[in-house]
Amino acid sequence: MATTDLTLDTFPSAVGSDGITLVDFWAAWCGPCRSFAPVFEQASEQHPDITFGKVDTEAEQQLAAQFQITSIPTLMVFRDGILVYAQPGALGAPQLEQLVQGARDLDMEEVRAQLAAQQTQ
């Protein structure tokens, strides 16, 4: 599966559904973004069961502001509608593969329990 361009309108349904969604916040003028793009694209081909989305921070400034993107590329991982990872910086293929495996291995019941505990504090 190839990457999908996400917009303010399509973002909520992309990240809010069950499963894993990786989101790359990028811009055309960003050198590290351009070097990370093929790595992200290749991972999308290797993991057709995962949604790989891209947000052009120039075209989608409101979305970038909503997520407080101050450095690009920034990669976010959502699992079952929950943000489980957010870090700026380009990753190499091995690091991205580790991140994908980590998202797959998450115990989402434990994640939900931790979130519930934080909300009661």
UniProtKB/TrEMBL annotation:
<dbReference type="InterPro" id="IPR017937">
    <property type="entry name" value="Thioredoxin_CS"/>
</dbReference>
<protein>
    <recommendedName>
        <fullName>Thioredoxin</fullName>
    </recommendedName>
</protein>
<dbReference type="Pfam" id="PF00085">
    <property type="entry name" value="Thioredoxin"/>
</dbReference>
<keyword id="KW-0249">Electron transport</keyword>
<dbReference type="InterPro" id="IPR005746">
    <property type="entry name" value="Thioredoxin"/>
</dbReference>
<feature type="domain" description="Thioredoxin">
    <location>
        <begin position="1"/>
        <end position="105"/>
    </location>
</feature>
<comment type="similarity">
    <text>Belongs to the thioredoxin family.</text>
</comment>
<keyword id="KW-0676">Redox-active center</keyword>
<keyword id="KW-0813">Transport</keyword>
<dbReference type="InterPro" id="IPR036249">
    <property type="entry name" value="Thioredoxin-like_sf"/>
</dbReference>
<dbReference type="InterPro" id="IPR013766">
    <property type="entry name" value="Thioredoxin_domain"/>
</dbReference>
<keyword id="KW-1015">Disulfide bond</keyword>
